[in-house]
From TrEMBL:
Cell compartments where the protein resides: Cell membrane
Keywords, comma-separated and alphabetical: Cell membrane, Membrane, Transmembrane, Transmembrane helix
Domain Type II secretion system protein GspF, chain residue ranges per copy: 41-167
Protein's membrane topology: Multi-pass membrane protein
Keyword Transmembrane: yes
Record field: transmembrane: 150-175
GO cellular component, one term: plasma membrane
InterPro entries the record matches: T2SS_GspF_dom
Protein name: Pilus assembly protein, probably tadC
């Protein structure tokens, strides 16, 4: 019987993991999961701290991240190297359906550096802190909502049990002593 159970588990594992792309789509990942914005900003900041130019940093981080980030960041880097205007280079990246918001934030961090020659690192550090603060705030709000959603069913389950086990026997004992 034990061997049959192991054989069923092995067959199930083979069916599930035979096609990892199908498994990701069944799990709701849809293929590749985008990394958090803070990670992207940190990676670009590290590249810039090491002396890379903005296009080189964008291309290197894009190649490292892969997926939508690779094609978008490499395209922006190439447009900048070719001498195109900053806004023209970033326009299509900021309209990307999945990572457009991240590209808008990244462009905002690097814009003054490209146009005026200032260091982008302070602005990037500030942006990373703001994004983390927003994420923490959103997490706290969702946690509060979840605790309320959990409290209602728990209360509705425990209250009848308390009445049936604690209150009714006490009333019955009190009423039994009166008669």
């Amino acid at each position: 019987m034990k061997a049959l159970g192991i054989a069923v588990l092995v067959a199930l594992a083979r069916a599930l993991f035979r096609d990892p792309v199908a498994l990701r789509s069944r799990l709701g990942c849809g293929g590749r999961v985008n990394p958090p914005l803070t990670l992207v900003l940190e990676m670009v900041a590290v590249s810039l701290r090491q002396g890379a130019s903005i296009p080189f940093a964008l291309e290197g981080v894009g190649r490292t991240l892969g997926g939508a980030y690779a094609e978008t960041m490499i395209r922006v880097a190439r447009l900048l190297v070719e001498g195109n205007d900053w806004y023209f280079s970033w326009a299509q990246a900021m309209r990307h359906p999945r990572i457009g918001e991240a590209m808008t934030v990244l462009s905002g961090c690097l814009e003054s550096s490209w146009l005026h020659g200032t260091s982008p690192l302070n602005r990037m550090d500030t942006t990373i802190e703001q994004v983390e603060r927003k994420a923490r705030s959103r997490l706290d709000q969702e946690t509060a909502r979840l605790s309320i959603r959990i409290l209602m069913p728990t209360g509705l389950c425990i209250l009848p049990a308390f009445v049936l086990i604690g209150v009714i026997p006490c009333i019955a004992a009190f009423a039994g002593g009166m008669f």
